[in-house]
Design a protein that fits this description.
This protein is of the alpha+beta class. The chain is built from nine helices and 17 strands. It has three domains: 49 residues; 211 residues, Extracellular Endonuclease, subunit A (Extracellular Endonuclease, Chain A), CATH 3.40.570.10; 46 residues, no CATH class. A seven-stranded mixed beta sheet has the order 1-2-11-10-9-6-5. A four-stranded mixed beta sheet has the order 16-14-15-17. Strands 3-4 form a two-stranded antiparallel ribbon. A hairpin with a 6-residue loop joins strand 12 and strand 13. It is elongated and about 115 Å long. 30% of the residues are buried. Bound molecules: zinc ion. The site of zinc ion has 6 residues, from loops.
């Protein structure tokens, strides 16, 4: 009896101790979860990472944990290029590119399909995997290049890019000078501009992948984004869905711009995510997008064109200048000449229209 009693007593004091311990542990756990103290937060984040959870801080994607991939694009955003139609493509406003669709990547169904991916409202899974699960073994890296259209223009290029599609280490670039993209004109400083960069695709003289582009488009517009994708793939070994499309106005042969869309696969767009339209322009130059003839500001001033001379003052104007409207009819003289011919004859350029 005694034995039982005493053991009962022992048991109840033991259980009191146990419940106190549980309460302390629960309190500590609660503090651990909610605390914002840097030390606790640091321990918590590293524990979460070890357990396979993403960082608690949402928003900024870190592809490899080292560098934050900034959202691409600056300046204005356009909702959707296709809704503007090819006669109303965005006008260059000084930025290298515009964001499309709020910079959110969207792809034609085929882009996912060829990669063996299912897109369910923005959540990707490999075909045959559970929803939201990417099994790299089931993923199908590829590149696709659309055929030229009936005007010989590039149409689109896309793929699921990864180390499999990139050039091998030490592989040299091939010669692409044999390709003459639509709108190519000699001696206009055009560059053969890849829809999918060589560094991502190892594609050389593929006519479906090369357009007539300005240095500004090639190096200032597209290249930083291409490098972002390239570094992300090297750093993570992950894959990136990629879509590149030149936009032509009407029947023009030189593209007005290139849309670039990309989204990383394994981390569901955390590392790489953009949708932009890069301008095929050269600031301070006029481009004839039908002939491929580029006229710089300097050249424009050298070429012969129509000017209006005020014969009384000796000042010459562009015909559109307000000074011409105010000029009395009998002082007006229309000439076709170069700027230099007029200044050589002693005429002075108008300070307002600056011909
Ligand atoms: Zn004027």
């Amino acid at each position: 009896m005694n034995k039982t009693k005493s053991s009962k007593k022992k048991n109840s004091s033991k259980s009191r101790l146990l419940s106190a311990l549980v309460i302390v542990i629960l309190l500590a756990a609660a503090l651990f979860v909610v605390s914002d103290a840097p030390f606790i937060k640091g321990v918590r984040d590293s524990l979460m990472q070890k357990l396979g959870y993403e960082s608690v801080d949402q928003g900024e994607g870190t592809g490899d944990g080292s560098e934050t991939v900034k959202p691409a694009g600056k300046g204005n955003s356009i909702e959707d290029i296709s809704s503007l139609g090819t006669d109303a493509l965005p006008e260059y406003n000084g930025d290298h590119y515009l964001q499309v669709n709020g910079n959110m990547p969207e792809f034609p169904d085929d882009v996912y399909d060829r990669a063996s991916l299912v897109n369910d409202n923005g959540v990707l899974s490999t075909k045959g995997s559970k929803a939201g699960k990417i099994d790299t073994k089931l993923l199908a890296p590829y590149e696709y290049y659309g055929s030229l259209d009936n005007l010989g223009r590039c149409t689109e290029a896309y793929g699921c890019l990864g180390e499999e599609t990139m050039p091998a280490e030490g592989q040299d670039r091939g010669d692409i000078s044999s390709v003459r993209p639509s709108g190519w004109a000699k001696a206009q400083n055009w560059e053969r501009c890849h829809l999918i960069a060589w560094a991502l695709s190892a594609e050389n003289a593929n006519p479906s992948n090369l357009i007539t582009g300005t240095h500004y488009l090639n190096y200032d517009g597209m290249r930083p984004l291409e490098e972002e994708v390239e570094h992300y793939i090297w750093n993570t070994g992950n894959h990136v869905l990629y879509y590149s499309k030149p936009w032509f106005s009407g029947d023009e042969l030189v593209a007005r711009g290139v849309q670039m869309v990309a989204r990383s696969v394994e981390d569901n767009g955390k590392g790489i995510s953009f949708n932009v339209y890069c301008f095929n322009v050269t600031p301070n130059a006029e481009i004839d997008y039908t002939t491929g003839i580029v006229t710089t500001e300097e050249q424009a001033k050298q070429d012969a064109r129509v000017y209006i001379i005020n014969t009384r003052s000796g000042v010459f104007h562009y015909p559109s200048c307000d000074g011409v409207k105010e000029m009395s009819e009998h002082n007006k003289k229309e000439v076709t000449a170069t700027r230099k011919e007029l200044t050589d004859q002693g005429y002075t350029p108008c300070g307002s229209c600056e011909p």
